[in-house]
Amino acid sequence: MRPTPDLSPVEERPVLPSGFVAGGMSAGIKASGRSDLGIVAVTTAGPASAAATFTANLVQAAPVRLSREHLAASGGAARGVIVTSGCANAATGPAGDDDQAAIAGALATALGCDPAETLCASTGLIGTRLPVDAVRSGIAALVPGGLRADDAGLEAFATAMLTTDTRLKAATTTIALPSDDDVSPRPIRVSGVAKGVGMIHPRMATMIAVILTDAPADPGLLASLLRDAVAATFEQTSVDGDTSTNDTVFLLASGAADVDRPRPGSGQAAALGAAITAVCRSLARQQAADGEGATTLITCRVTGAADLLDARAAARAVVRSNLVKAAAHGRDPNWGRVAAAAGAAMRPDGTPIALDPTTLAIGLAGTAVFSGVPLPFDAATVKAAMDAPELLVEVDLGRGQAAAEAFGCDLTEAYVRENSAYST
Amino acid sequence: MRPTPDLSPVEERPVLPSGFVAGGMSAGIKASGRSDLGIVAVTTAGPASAAATFTANLVQAAPVRLSREHLAASGGAARGVIVTSGCANAATGPAGDDDQAAIAGALATALGCDPAETLCASTGLIGTRLPVDAVRSGIAALVPGGLRADDAGLEAFATAMLTTDTRLKAATTTIALPSDDDVSPRPIRVSGVAKGVGMIHPRMATMIAVILTDAPADPGLLASLLRDAVAATFEQTSVDGDTSTNDTVFLLASGAADVDRPRPGSGQAAALGAAITAVCRSLARQQAADGEGATTLITCRVTGAADLLDARAAARAVVRSNLVKAAAHGRDPNWGRVAAAAGAAMRPDGTPIALDPTTLAIGLAGTAVFSGVPLPFDAATVKAAMDAPELLVEVDLGRGQAAAEAFGCDLTEAYVRENSAYST
Question: What ipTM, to 2 d.p.?
Fold first, then answer.
């Protein structure tokens, strides 16, 4: 598979940037007793700069509403992030808002900061209440004694976010950021952890992910870099076409690294943005690959689009198609379903993309199968090539120069089994 | 379940309106030897008035392109309809267009009419060519000797359309149409047959369906009535979220009934429109109930919407949700998925609907489960009520007076099995 240009190389492991401590534990939210409470705290003198994107679902969970309020009140400053799993605290009415505010208050007291300097996210069953007293006890147990300034702390935090995930999702990269008044670039690190295996079809927002960097940055620059990164990565990911009530991405910059604060529009800002995007892309791919019941990651790479919106829409439509997903599961080179999915793709404003079957070309697992007309190919060879942990679907629209990619997974009987009996 | 107001009562059986003959046979398109060629012909002195809606997919099948051309050239006049199954004749390039034109030419010769007075539709695997000689031989065998002026003829036609359908889909209604100058209303009949079990998510168009009436009507009026009927029925149906390359609805009016030609805007036109909508609604429900692998029809009825577009979007979003579909399969009263699906619904222009969780109410199989806050309910009772051939999901947005419904089906392991190995 061709590498995506202009993105930093990423390692899939939890590495804690300087300026943070992190930890996780079982607070008793999950009946299984598995880890369900994670906290990241900022250790620099001042708070970290923070930015976030949230779900566009109109049914927004209490932690989404509260984090949005806190970010606005603090002007993008954060001292701590708390993530709970096993309960979404969504569609719980005013009582759910009260629960979340009580938890934020307990975290603020433990950290010695203003409640507006805390951020929160939660994931799990919609319509159930958080056990506030148990979460309060968990906070008291974790802060400060249970928080660690090492990679194991971030791993514990990432583990506490998981629900039906089968794998921890983490990504990290370092880049050298040149200073304005210094010829020798100095390293900064961007790391991220995420959860998400179902109800994944982020829109104007994404799943729960926490991105940390030791770079210094103003909240406004962080928000802009995060928006671009999320649009190219998490929003191009679909497990089941369902948009969650709890999607949240936080980006915190501690500023502990010894580099200058990048100015918007500068080369340093672009380099930081590319590192953030690389981490988000890796996390999005890990989410899709671990989609409920999935056996293969599907990457759709669209080229030759009239513009970026067309490219993104076409790639998303292909990885979202239940029929493409089922064909991928059967290692069935049924490329007509790719053509049909791309042909039905719509831009965000509901208008069709620019697509003409006569200039359309499709490749499956490295073999060209359609180019205006069906191409002869050896089905057994393509079928064998599709039997891999990742399936590349290439779509060239032949209408321009824009390109994009999207990530999904196959649709399996295991997905149906897992989701036919979740709440009961 | 409450009856839908203002629609004529419908029987689910093929009844041929006067002014038509119909038949079907095995022409050898399907390897299985099952029936795969159906023809309806008009027996009145003049041609029938005709209207159609087609798929909005940009990858349009050859029969869709040809029928569109023919309707434009004939000004909405038709002498015959040919439907082939087992091959979509989509994404087949110029050769596929030539194949379809040759078939239209053969039908026109057999019927003694202009090729522009023929309409065609096809369904099956994308990317394969029609066996033109076999279809030509079939036409010669079927016209005129194999076409019958009775219900068995329409049944044979409907059977020839089927692919992975497990049941024939037919609907019929009669209404009394008052004449302008006559106090005694006279009966007209509207009948329809359809196929479709997968790649069903019609948009600005629908699946293959043929609606016949003996009422007289101008093509312009038919087009207007059909557009309204399709928007309320077929376009509110989703089996898997995938929009076909071949969706086609034809509406033919023979004028054989002894009634006046309804004027646009008249009470007669409205009555004819309601009958057409009732037949389309029944066919759409039959399609959803026979969705690939389905065990239950899901009807989502949305009320209290700010406007009709919001109501339709919310209902469609609920029946399209893979997670709602999987919960329906598990008879799992996991209403949070309904809230999340409705909350992510988008209008055709990509903007969100008017939805506020505090005024949202949800009912499952007759039990109220959410009304701004979660309501206590007996899960075992609701689970038992969900174990039925039809599941009613009620969503009240509490924002206005508009209402709509949508039809879908549960997502099952059988759907995945069936679609994991289709072409190979």
Answer: 0.80
